[in-house]
Design goal:
Keywords: Oxidoreductase. InterPro entries: NAD(P)-bd_dom_sf, Sc_DH/Rdtase_CS, SDR_fam. It holds the Pfam family adh_short_C2. Belongs to the short-chain dehydrogenases/reductases (SDR) family. This protein has 177 residues and is an alpha/beta fold. It has a single domain, classed as 3-Layer(aba) Sandwich (Rossmann fold). Helix content is 48%, strand content 12%. The chain contains 6 helices and 4 strands. The protein has a 4-stranded parallel beta sheet, sandwiched between helices. The longest helix is centred in the first third of the chain and has 29 residues. The radius of gyration is 17 Å and the shape is globular.
């Protein structure tokens, strides 16, 4: 993906790493090694592997911006979601460390941490209970829109955020405030 972008456009200016799996709430002692491996492979290893290729291409260009999508759960613990929580905390640790390493090379790396966002996945998971849940999830009392997360990502990729490095930006209606 990165190679093709560089081949077609000559460089890669920004990259967004947004993939993730959730888990069914379960007590930590009842989780399996397979559950751990599956969530870590997608939620953390996928980000790490993508960043390796993206950073190599950006080093050649002498600049770039990467935004990793974590979760509100990357900033706080969540009951019965230990593996998911660990994977999303891992994304933030990876983001911060890489941000320090590559900022001197002109590469800015940050993360966004969305709360409850109205997506097909959320619609399917919560169904008819979504309106009630949305009213209790954050001080704004509503579910977020995908466009609200996208606008934050676009800003972090833009020159308007040229002095922003290593942040974990909550986009959650104030839930972690």
């Amino acid at each position: 993906m990165v190679g093709r972008t560089v081949l077609e456009y000559g460089r890669i200016d920004c990259a967004i790493n947004n993939a993730g799996l959730s888990e069914t709430p379960v007590d930590l002692i009842d989780t399996s090694g397979e559950q751990w491996e599956r969530l870590m492979a997608v939620n953390l290893r996928g980000v790490w592997l993508s960043m390796q290729h993206q950073i190599r291409a950006m080093l050649d260009a002498g600049r770039g911006a990467i935004v990793n999508v974590s979760s509100r759960t990357g900033l706080v613990g969540k009951p019965r979601l230990a593996i998911y929580t660990a994977s999303k905390h891992g994304v933030l640790g990876l983001t911060r460390s890489a941000a320090i390493d590559y900022a001197p090379h002109g590469i800015r790396i940050n993360a966004v941490c969305p709360g409850l966002i109205h997506t097909p996945f959320v619609e399917q998971k919560f169904g008819d209970g979504l309106p009630d849940l949305a009213r209790t999830m954050n001080p704004l009392g509503r579910i977020g829109r995908p466009e609200e997360v996208a606008e934050c990502i676009a800003w972090l990729c833009s020159d308007a955020a040229s002095f922003v490095v290593g942040v974990s930006l909550p986009v959650d209606g104030g839930a972690v405030a």
